[in-house]
Amino acid sequence: PALVPTETRSVSRAALFLLLLAGGQLIFVFGSPYFTVFPTNDNALFSAALVAAFGLLALAFRQRPSLAHYAPPVYALFVAAAANLALVIGPLNRFLSATEPYRQMTQDKVVQFLTVVPVLVLLSRVAGRDLGWIYVQRGRPRRWLPFGLVSFAVCAGVMTWMVLSSGMSVNDLLAAAPWIMTFVVANAIMEELWFRGVFLQPYEAGIGWTGTPVVTALTFGVSHMNATYFESWVGLVFGAGVIGLGLVLAWAMRWADSLWGSVLFHMGLDLLIILPVVQSV
Question: pTM here?
Answer without folding.
Answer: 0.94
